[in-house]
Amino acid sequence: MKFPTPSSLAQRVRPHLHRKVRFEAGKYGDDPRWSNKDLDPVPIELQTWGGIDYWAYWCSDMLAPPLAATVSTVMSLGFTARETIPIVFFGFMICSVVVTLTGKMGARYHVAYPVIVRASFGMFGSYPAICIRAFVAMMWTAILCVQAGGFLQNCITAIWPSFKNFPNHLSPNAGIDSAGLLCFFLYWIVQTLLSIMPIKKLRLLFLAKAIIVPPTFVALFLWAVIVTHGGGELVTGKMELKTPMNTAYSALTGLNVIIGLFSSMAVNMPDFGRFSRNHLSGGHQYLALPIIGTLGALTPIFVTSAHSHIWGTFEWYMPAVIAKFDSRPAKFFTAASFILATIGNQIAAGSFPFSNDISGLAPQYINIFRGTIIMSIFCVVSTPWNIIRNASGLLSFLSGYSCLMGPLAGVIVTDFYIIRKGKLDITSLYDGKPGARYWYTGGMNFRAFFSFVLGFTPTLPGFARAIGGPMKVHVGGAWKIYTFAWLFGFTFASLAYYVICTYVSPPIDSFVDEAVLPPHVGDVGSDTGSAEADVEKGGVKVSEADI
Asked: Residue-wise over 388-425: b if at least 16 C-beta within 10 A, else e?
């Protein structure tokens, strides 16, 4: 892997100086708004992912700073390892149910989230659903830029200890000092340059991450166990809650935070599931997230305890923990490993999915390159260092967007598995003409939006209380729903959508008797035994009755 040179960058940037970008319609229609090479089903030759590939992906994605920050944030509520480990396990187990279900949607129809969501929300209705997820991806990428800047500061300080005395010219209320801001921008430049490269050229980057990062997690875990002689107070001690909530609501808050970490992945797993060669078959896929996530969580749990044992204070922010290492080589290599983990996580789960999504919103003006630039600019203007100034800030962010992602996932899962029994018409997902199968009313399925609002609205009082503070915002007992916002939103939106589509206003015109599927690698050369003649239409085989 080579960094882009100035000449290669100029060559890539020059075509994007025009107002419109070059784009072509895909195989499934003549309107590139709905069908283009980024939105069409994955071709057979790219349906190559098997079970081992997905387990490897989860290892790569889970063992990263977001997991460490989230688990330590749960511990900031006052929990020890005895409470945190079960909360982490059950949080990931709940999230894994939805991740597996949505992943199988993409694996069956080989399409990404922006396409699959059209069946639930409508052709134009998919736009708000895409924007909700895109916003979450932007925020996480921005937050990770701050953390990675902290890791870079660790590396520079390990090489030049005098950098610790870098003069600060910013206000104490800025949320970041001059050295941190400098390192933020240095990392931001590198991350942007890597993000605009085609993802297929970053194979060596992801390979290096898979080789280097897991041993770093293991080494940190062993260090924490050794220096604490078995764990420390936050592992073997007693729980002391730091919040005014009782144990039950504190546990629900922690559970909601863990689910929140992957609540975005719970809806966009089709982005990765579409590459499956076996429709994500096998129950082992469900086990990947809780097993890998819980084992990976042991490192931040024990490291947080070790910091409290050695330095006497609770510290959830990993760059601050690494900064206190006495060994300069340990400080440098640990921080460098976390930088590598952050870059891989940002590109694979942040900038690339975001750019792919918004390019589908306005392909005449936005492609993946421009989407990446938009993401990079947002990472600066959003001042993400104010979000993670303390553990409570990250806690509010994770719980806050869970209010949106829970109802969204509930509607999508219920629509696909219960209302439609998994039967979609792949060709109609690319038909944006009025009166088409998934057009509904004005291009929007108001049943889905009404259910989404019903699942989201009851959590608003608790969200306002979390942002404004319990002393400034009084909402009575309504805040309690917010402690399990994702579970409440998912369940309530699912029930509402089921009742509406079953008893009030069934979307009959959008139903199909038989699923119309794209070509799948396992179907090549097979004999379906169907009595009906199959006709190739738009790259898929559909029966004459469906044409």
From this structure: bbebebbbbbbbbbbbbbbbbbbbbbbbbeebbeeebb
Helices (H), 160-246: 178-195, 203-227, 233-236
Q: What is the DSSP string of 19-33?
A: SS------TT-S-TT
Taking the C-alpha atoms of residue 433 and residue 435, their distance in angstroms, rounded to an integer, is 6
- pTM of the complete model: 0.85
- Provide the pLDDT for residue 13: 65
What whole-number distance in Å separates Cα of residue 107 and Cα of residue 271? 9
Q: pLDDT tens for residues 138-175?
A: 888 888 899 899 999 999 999 999 999 999 998 888 88
**How much is the mean pLDDT over the chain?**
83
Place of tokens 């931001």: 188
Whether residue 316 contacts residue 75, with contact meaning beta carbons closer than 8 Å, is answered with yes
**Whole-angstrom distance, CA of residue 376 vs CA of residue 355:** 11
**Tokens 């659903």, residue located:** 129
Q: Which residue has the tokens 């983990």?
A: 341
> What pLDDT, on the 0 to 100 scale, is given for residue 116?
93
CA 391 to chain CA centroid, nearest Å: 20
- CA-based angle 546:361:118, to the nearest 5? 35
- Structural tokens at position 203: 């194979």
Are the C-beta atoms of 280 and 103 separated by less than 8 Å? yes
Task: Using the Cα atoms of residue 491, residue 495, residue 501 and residue 502 in order, give the sign of their dihedral.
Answer: positive
CA-angle at 309, arms to 303 and 310, nearest 5°? 90
Lowest mean pLDDT among 6-15, 122-131, 433-442, 493-502: 6-15
Question: What is the rounded distance in angstroms from the CA atom of residue 529 to the CA atom of residue 527?
Answer: 5
CA distances from 346 to 188, 253, 260, 267 (A): 11, 26, 17, 17
**Helix or strand or coil: residue 534?**
strand
Question: Could you give phi then psi for residue 542, rounded to 5 degrees?
Answer: -130, 150
Place of tokens 């503070």: 469
Instruction: Please give the Cα distance from 46 to 273 (Å, whole number).
Output: 12
CA–CA gap between residue 54 and residue 285 (Å, rounded): 8
How many helices and strands, by DSSP H and E, does the chain display?
23, 2
Instruction: Please report, as a single letter, which amino acid is at residue 494.
Output: S
H-type alpha helices, 124-174: 126-159
DSSP string spanning 254-272? Answer: HHHHHHHHTTTHHHHTHHH
Joined tokens for residue 221:
């875990």
User: What is the crossing angle of helices 368-381 and 352-359, to 10°?
Assistant: 120
CA distance 359 to 374: 11
C-alpha separations of 4 from 10, 192, 194 in Å? 10, 11, 8
CB-facing half-sphere around the CA of 164: CA atoms within 13 A: 11
Dist. CA 268–CA 133, nearest whole Å: 8
Name beta bridge partners: 540.
Answer: 537
